[in-house]
Design brief:
Elements: H1 2-23, H2 28-42, H3 46-53, H4 60-66, H5 70-73, H6 76-83, H7 86-98, H8 100-110, H9 114-125, E1 134-135, H10 136-146, H11 151-168, E2 176-177, H12 190-196, H13 212-225, E3 235-240, E4 256-257, H14 258-262, E5 266-268, E6 277-283, E7 290-294, H15 296-304, H16 308-325
Antiparallel strand pairs: 1-2, 3-5, 3-7, 4-6, 6-7
Length: 328
């Protein structure tokens, strides 16, 4: 078995190496075209853009991580074990206590539950303690010019990053974030930063990198804009009958009624008799898989990150923090 495992690991590493070699090329002509177009569109000196881009560094490790994100390689059981830990839950309670008044105000004004805001910040950055070690400029440069499958997207994000730095007076050479270029407590991409970031006190200037109040307000605003329903449920686990029909892959967007799935052999584990529009998502485990009824608010969380694994981790981490803070 060790021999087979070793060969399999070797094959995986070989594929990753080939991918890096295939993608790990930056054509200076592409960088020059980007600089000219951006300078023209923003009506700024070309030399100013070229000066910034000349200091960007291509990093192979970024390409490697793009090729094997946790959401696509881990079972739900293993993914959950990363985020539902005693340390993270306790850190969430501490974070809640430290930001009690601001979090309550944000929740009341937006309709987003406090524990969901905490769940997102907890999953994204362990409550601000793990904001990323890559320069955002390097990440977006590497992926925009050295990763063809998504080069258009990351070039657009690079343009928005330069715009953001100019608008907010940020230094593009020093800001750090994730390998994909996400920033701050809530890991907003530049486009999301510009579109959804919100100042907590409304005094102008939005800092998601150092200002936790702005970060919490921005998470809430993102979910609110994406149509969070304050009166709606999020998700509930499903019981599976012995003769339940096998499901095809389900959309993350709710499309069928609970009774529709009931006829197929799936019922809410909490005994709910509410017939509402849901989707039923299967989560792979090492042994027995789990099935969860997911409502519109679950879908809204997947607008933050499209992975159902992510959304369920956010929900469960938030629930665990709330339970720890308010034990029954």
């Amino acid at each position: 078995m060790r021999g087979r495992s070793g060969k399999r690991l070797g094959l995986i590493l070989y594929i990753i190496l080939c991918t890096v070699l295939a993608y790990g090329q930056v054509r200076q002509a592409d960088v020059d075209d980007f600089a000219r177009n951006y300078a023209f569109q923003e009506r700024i000196p070309l030399a100013e853009v070229e000066e910034i881009l000349s200091k960007a560094e291509f990093q192979n490790s970024i390409i490697e991580k793009m090729e094997r994100p946790a959401e696509k390689t881990l079972t739900w059981e293993r993914y959950r074990s990363i985020f539902l830990t005693e340390d993270r839950i306790n850190a969430g309670v501490k974070f809640w206590n430290e930001n009690l008044i601001e979090l309550e105000n944000i929740s009341n004004n937006s309709g987003i539950p406090e524990e969901i805001i905490l769940g997102i910040i907890g999953v994204e950055t362990f409550f601000g303690t793990r904001k990323g070690t890559y320069r955002v400029l390097d990440a977006l440069y590497t992926l925009g010019f050295g990763y063809p499958p998504r080069s258009s997207y990351f070039k657009a994000e690079l343009a928005k990053f330069l715009e953001l730095c100019k608008n907010e007076g940020l230094d593009p050479l020093t800001i750090k974030g994730s390998y994909a270029g996400a920033m701050g407590y809530c890991q907003f991409m530049p486009t999301s930063y510009l579109a959804y970031a919100k100042s907590y006190d409304g005094m102008g200037g939005i800092d998601l990198i150092n200002n936790v109040d702005d970060a919490m307000a921005s998470v809430a605003n993102y979910l609110k804009v994406h149509r969070w329903d304050p009166s709606g449920r999020i998700t509930t686990k499903a019981m599976v009958a012995a003769d339940a029909q096998t499901l095809s892959k389900q959309s993350t967007r709710p499309r069928h009624s609970t009774s529709h799935y009931g006829a197929l052999g799936y019922a809410p584990e909490d005994g709910s008799t509410i017939d509402e529009t849901v989707t039923l998502i299967e989560f792979e485990n090492e042994a027995e898989n789990e099935y969860w009824f997911c409502m519109n608010n679950f879908y809204v969380i997947t607008r933050y990150n499209h992975s159902p694994l992510y959304a369920l981790a956010v929900y469960q981490l938030g629930a665990a923090i709330k339970e720890r803070k308010f034990p029954k």
